[in-house]
Amino acid sequence: LKGLKWKCYIEASLKHWLMFCLFPSPEPCSPTNVSSQLVCSAGIAHVSWAPSANAVKYAMKATSNEQILSCTSSTPNCTLTDLVCGQLYDIVVTSTDGTCVSGYSAAFRQDEGTEREVVPHLITHLLTMTMAKKTNVTTNLLCGTSDMTVSWIPNALPFNYSVIAVPLAGNISSVTCKTSHANCSLSGLQCGQTYNVSVKASSGSCSGPYSHPQIVQTGCVYIFLYERDVFSLPLPTGPCDPVNVTSIYQCGSDKATVSWEAAAGAVAYTVHAQEGSSQHYSSCRSNTTSCQLNQLQCGKVYNLTVMAEDATCNSTGDISTTLMTAPCSPSVQNSTLICGTNSSSLSWMAMADATGYIVNATATNGHTVSCSSAAATCILTDLLCSETYMTTVTAQGSQCDSAPSSSTNITTSPCAPANISKQYVCGTSTAVFSWTDPLGRLSFLAQVAGEGYQDSCQTTNTSCAFQSLPCGLGLNVTVEAQGAQCNSIPSVSESLETGNTSTSVLAILVCLNHSALVSWVGSPSAIGFNVTLTGQDGHTHHCQTNTTSCQLPDIHCGETYDIVVTPYSETCAGHPSALYVFRAGTCSTCGIKYTYISPQRDNYKPFFSLLLSRSLCSQ
């Protein structure tokens, strides 16, 4: 009974006194095992505890920084209502037996090291970007990505937070992130879309409501609530990448036009053209959906990237295409005439990305020829002689051809000399030939040949003399012009007859009419012959004929005659034949077959037979 309070009564008289005490009932003990269960959606808490002996009623008090809540109950439980979100409540309970009130229970708290279970507050301070009014707000701008950082003013209590971005377009997934800090990064947002962004806090098993959804349009403008006021700022994470990028190279120039489809959130565009791994690049900027690149190099393949821009960031530049420029102009490295064919072979260095080549050649007189090839060589045919051709090579590309190369001159083989003139000097057996002077010649080679005889003359002049030509020959003369690489074809053959000589002279006496019949072997080029018969007594006879025989009258019998036959041609007289001595016999009657044996022959050759009659020819 120790520790109990007794209530005693005393009755007293003159003779004695009487004290009696009432057995005391113990006062209620302080409630124990206080616990609570939050109903987050209703903002209430069901608090319960272990029953206390002799308790007929309980009183509960919940104290936070902002309010004090209480309730009474005859049962060991009670419900707290009108809880303020984001507050921490200390809960205590007392019991009473109707007379006495117990002491307070131990304040209800969670065990050390765990979060206090409270109703998280409504996140009303949803922030995006930098606000000057709040110096404790920082911004992480993730330009060129699909990420966005959302931040807010946190509660003093250690809450967990969830951020959700719900797209207005139904075919796109929501994006969420969770954190225990006052900011969170949303990854995987699609550019050019509109999202409702909300934040909620949680503590323990209870979550607070989402904040008022804020409209966020990626690639354009964020709209957010700050201190329950609406603000808008440009989106820093960048617009969408342009799509359907195409390029058209402007043939014959160093320019190309690049076009694309408009990107959401873009206010301008920049086109970058990078040539492989080199340092060469070109760029242009436009606020429309096309742009012109300048100063592009020939024979290159450019990687094209179109970057969309807004006020703060660029797009990612993940979409690219290629642009192939026209091949560079080839340069002729070698040109070689193919002698005797009126052709020339050309070669040049192969150009990158060339699909073929075209060679064009134009002569000074306007004559044109061309050839095409898939390789870096080509043969021009049907070239005119003694001409200079201006030659260019063009490389063909898949879209455009190169500019023509710098011109290269091809001088063809000289033409064959023409209009050969000749002059034969009879006394010296010298022939002088002259001819035209074709373009491109360096020298000339003249040749005479015929009947086993051949001679040549090399000269840089347009004439040449052949001396001591054998007489009585029919010669052919040709002239060839010699060029730097090739010679002309020989000129048309010109004939030449050298001086003539008659051989095998024969004479007989014709007694019938006292004449001498003279015959000889003529020269092929002779057109006539002069026959002279001279007697020792000074008696002379002449005969001119275009045949190979001549009859001289009035021959004196018994006289000795010297006979000379001299041929002549159109140009000059030939050489006289060897002197032939003829003795006229005495006249008599006889019939004789006379055979002359030529001293220049190895065999007998009858030149003629003559029957003399009625006259007597004596030797």
Automatic annotation (TrEMBL):
<feature type="domain" description="Fibronectin type-III">
    <location>
        <begin position="326"/>
        <end position="415"/>
    </location>
</feature>
<dbReference type="InterPro" id="IPR036116">
    <property type="entry name" value="FN3_sf"/>
</dbReference>
<dbReference type="Pfam" id="PF00041">
    <property type="entry name" value="fn3"/>
</dbReference>
<dbReference type="InterPro" id="IPR013783">
    <property type="entry name" value="Ig-like_fold"/>
</dbReference>
<feature type="domain" description="Fibronectin type-III">
    <location>
        <begin position="241"/>
        <end position="325"/>
    </location>
</feature>
<dbReference type="InterPro" id="IPR003961">
    <property type="entry name" value="FN3_dom"/>
</dbReference>
<protein>
    <recommendedName>
        <fullName>Fibronectin type-III domain-containing protein</fullName>
    </recommendedName>
</protein>
<feature type="domain" description="Fibronectin type-III">
    <location>
        <begin position="133"/>
        <end position="221"/>
    </location>
</feature>
